[in-house]
């Protein structure tokens, strides 16, 4: 993991640089670190929950207090309805094929590790990452 020194003014990031005292990156930044300022300061970056109901033609703004329990409820429902204990040969597999996970370059190694642990705990067997492409 890289260490960053981030400077902000008026609530906006104005500079990101590598921490020269960090033993891993020693002041350097990879391409992800270099691009972080663009991610943080992008005017098109969503900062609220957007939800489009089935058959709707527009997005609604929702609260995190609504979204997180809703996501959990839907994941649990899908997992419970599609759980596979054994395959056709009778081998124990304990998995769900109706859920999948996708990682991206914005995630660091630790976040990818945690995401994969969560996915495996849910029984997800199909994990992809854009680095493979």
Automatic annotation (TrEMBL):
Gene Ontology process terms (BP): anaerobic respiration
GO CC entries: cell envelope
GO MF entries: 4 iron, 4 sulfur cluster binding; electron transfer activity; molybdenum ion binding; oxidoreductase activity
Cofactor(s) required for function per UniProt: [4Fe-4S] cluster
Alphabetical UniProt keywords: 4Fe-4S, Iron, Iron-sulfur, Metal-binding, Oxidoreductase
Localization: Cell envelope
Keyword Aminoacyl-tRNA synthetase: no
Pfam assignment, any one: Molybdop_Fe4S4
Domain 4Fe-4S Mo/W bis-MGD-type span(s) in chain numbering: 1-44
InterPro entries named among the record's database cross-references: Mopterin_OxRdtase_4Fe-4S_dom (IPR006963)
Family: Belongs to the prokaryotic molybdopterin-containing oxidoreductase family.
Protein name: 4Fe-4S Mo/W bis-MGD-type domain-containing protein
């Amino acid at each position: 993991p890289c260490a960053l020194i981030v400077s902000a003014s008026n609530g906006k990031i104005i500079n990101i640089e590598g921490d020269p005292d960090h033993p891993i990156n020693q002041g350097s930044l990879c391409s992800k670190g270099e691009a972080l300022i663009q991610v943080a300061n992008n005017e098109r970056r969503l900062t609220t929950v957007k939800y489009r109901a089935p058959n709707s033609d527009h997005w609604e703004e929702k609260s995190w207090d609504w979204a997180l329990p809703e996501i959990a409820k839907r994941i649990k429902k899908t997992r419970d309805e599609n759980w596979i204990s054994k395959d056709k040969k009778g081998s124990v597999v304990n998995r769900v094929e109706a859920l999948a996970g996708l990682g991206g370059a914005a995630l660091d190694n630790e976040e990818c590790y945690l995401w994969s642990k969560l996915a495996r705990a849910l029984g997800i067997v199909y994990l992809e990452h854009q680095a493979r492409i």
